[in-house]
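Service request form, structural biology core

Requester: graduate student, group of Dr. S.
Request type: structure prediction, single chain
Budget code: on file
Notes: please return the result as structure tokens.

Sequence provided:
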Amino acid sequence: MFRKIDDKISVSPQITLDDVTAAKAEGVTLIINNRPDGEEPSAPQSADIEAAAEAAGISYVAIPITHSGFSAPQVEAMIAALGEAKGKTLAYCRSGTRSTLLWSLAQAKQGVAPEEIARLAGNAGYDITPIRAMIDALTGEN
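Core staff response, request fulfilled:
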């Protein structure tokens, strides 16, 4: 269920409380929630996943991304969270797409080449085309 982007980060659709245990078993030390509370009321909400992560000894950060898009503060929060991670990270949202796109923007802001970002995201089954112009702008490539 977890899709590996690189050795440091995987992304996933909505996780369950049991998935937190599976993430721990895979060496995850940070969970990033990119899904806003209430988007799917029957899904575990932020506080539920945070409590399960804390119980498992996993750090937790919420950077909710609504369908209205991405903002500079969200990109900065993703950069900060990934920079502080002590091991593997698992980021999740409804399908994994928003998590992948936010990771992509964070990578671009840090100077990773757009083609490398596209390759890594593609290997995990995600297409960065919807934000490619933003990635190019962040890296200074046209």
